């Protein structure tokens, strides 16, 4: 299905920035509570209560039947992990991804956290996935193309020995969680839709330490790496401005 690319007014982008700030604060609340022994369901409740208390809506809850307010994916889980009674332990990497709606507008952001001590290559995976996100964001400006973002992420990932998940992509965002255009994490520069002032994109590299292939678990949500290698995920909601970009889910 081809999704419509919506151009936002400055007022709309300001509202999305407010939603993005609440998203940022909810991530900070989760970060404060990350420790070995806490369950992913406890983290989900912390995020849910914080978002509601501050006037937002946890948009993931009930989205196409998703049963929780945030996605929590551990180690070889790429995205869409369902919170449960599973406890975090030393050596885990934990990807937390969720969408917050405030005043009718969505914000989407993901981070991967390290619990305790991990191997150097896993630490590099996490750090380089975050850096790949910013390599993609650097391409955002009027007149650039989606393929410029995609190619920058892919090039950085491959230069650092990481594989790029192809089945899952970033997307436009606004009053809906998912709008046009798709934002793949691989591609060819100077191809794809042209960026225009007022477009808002959720850019989100998902990179694996091993092979790129993924599969879905029997819960019909959780995506894992086929070779069981660790995966990391970072995401920001980014608006195209007249001379570049602004990150809406930052501080």
Query: β content, as a range?
Result: 25-35%
Helix content: 25-40%
- Large-scale geometry: globular
Q: How far apart lie the N and C ends? A: 34 Å
Q: How do the strands of the widest beta sheet line up side by side?
A: 8-7-9-14-15
Record field, number of beta strands:
15
Main sheet?
5 strands, antiparallel
* SS-derived structural category: alpha+beta
Using the CA coordinates, give the radius of gyration.
17 Å
Spans of at least 5 consecutive residues whose pLDDT stays below 50 are none
**Given the structure, what is the number of helices?**
4
User: Kindly state the mean pLDDT as a whole number?
Assistant: 97
The ordered string of helix (H) and strand (E) elements is HHEEEEEHHEEEEEEEEEE
């Amino acid at each position: 299905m081809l999704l419509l690319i919506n151009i936002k007014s400055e007022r709309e982008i300001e509202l999305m920035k407010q939603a993005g700030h609440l998203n940022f604060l909810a991530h900070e609340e989760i970060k404060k509570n990350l420790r070995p022994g806490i369950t992913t369901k406890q983290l989900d409740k912390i995020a849910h209560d914080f978002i509601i208390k501050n006037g937002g809506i946890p948009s993931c809850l009930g989205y196409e039947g998703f049963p929780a307010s945030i996605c929590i994916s551990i180690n070889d889980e790429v995205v869409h992990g369902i919170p449960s009674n599973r406890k975090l332990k030393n050596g885990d990497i934990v990807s937390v991804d969720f969408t917050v709606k405030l005043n009718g507008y969505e914000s989407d952001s993901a981070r991967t956290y390290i619990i305790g001590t991990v191997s150097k290559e896993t630490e590099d995976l996490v750090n380089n996935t975050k850096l790949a996100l910013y390599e993609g964001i650097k391409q955002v400006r009027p007149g650039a193309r989606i393929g410029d973002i995609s190619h920058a992420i892919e090039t950085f990932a491959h230069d650092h020995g990481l594989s790029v998940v192809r089945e899952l992509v970033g997307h436009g965002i606004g009053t809906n969680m998912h709008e046009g255009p798709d934002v793949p994490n691989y591609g060819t520069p100077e191809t794809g839709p042209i960026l225009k002032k007022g477009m808002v994109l959720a850019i989100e590299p998902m990179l694996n330490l091993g092979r790129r292939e993924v599969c879905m678990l029997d819960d019909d949500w959780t995506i894992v790496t086929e070779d069981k290698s660790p995966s990391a995920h970072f995401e920001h909601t980014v608006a195209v401005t007249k001379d570049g970009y602004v990150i809406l889910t930052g501080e």
